[in-house]
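Dear Dr. H.,

I hope your travels went smoothly. While you were away I took the liberty of generating a structure for the chain from your last submission, since the lab meeting agenda had it listed for discussion. I wanted you to have the full record in hand beforehand rather than looking at slides cold. The sequence, exactly as received, is reproduced here:
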Amino acid sequence: MKVLNLYPGIGGNRKLWKDVEVTAVENNKEIAGIYQDFFPDDNVVVEDAHQYLLENYKEFDFIWSSPPCPTHSRIRNNSAVASGQNEVCYPDMKLYEEIILLNNVYNLGKFKGNFIVENVISYYAPLIKPQEIQRHHFWSNFIISKKFLSGDRIGDGNIPYWEKRFGYDLSKFSNIDKRKALRNCVHPKLGLHVFECAFKKKQTTLKVEE
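The corresponding predicted structure, in token form, is as follows:
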């Protein structure tokens, strides 16, 4: 099975996937190097994931995209802006560009696999209705059953706590913001749950609302 993993960070979502041929596209060279260290058999591409998706979506059986989330985040755009820590900014609409693109090529029969676009729960009402699991919004062409993971609040705990929880040892890496890298992770168990939902027998597919 050929999988495209876009904006993977250090690979939290991918950690528990088995028997897959993964292409990971990450534009941060340092983060891409760490991902490659953890997943040496994956094909890691240091490019713009947004453009890569447009040019290569037909080649894959499953696509997972996790576009950058800060401009959609409730923490960044409510608490931090209100307190003066952050400036007001536009939400990055590449998130919705990818949702619309994948939904359209799927409905047109140009892409016959399964896809998911993941992001944080936004500070605004979503423009396209997502599925919601704890701190995540998911847009997909399949149903994701509810999954509860205790302690999923990424603000709780410290770096060693999250390393243990996600099964990562970042001690040999000194060139990254470890807290940020871990905060950007999708919990491996949630990544596996979503992947399994995509390929359950008799899985009901969805048309993402436009």
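Two observations you may find useful: Residues 201-210 have pLDDT under 50 and may be disordered. The chain has one domain: 2-147+188-198.

With kind regards,
E. W.
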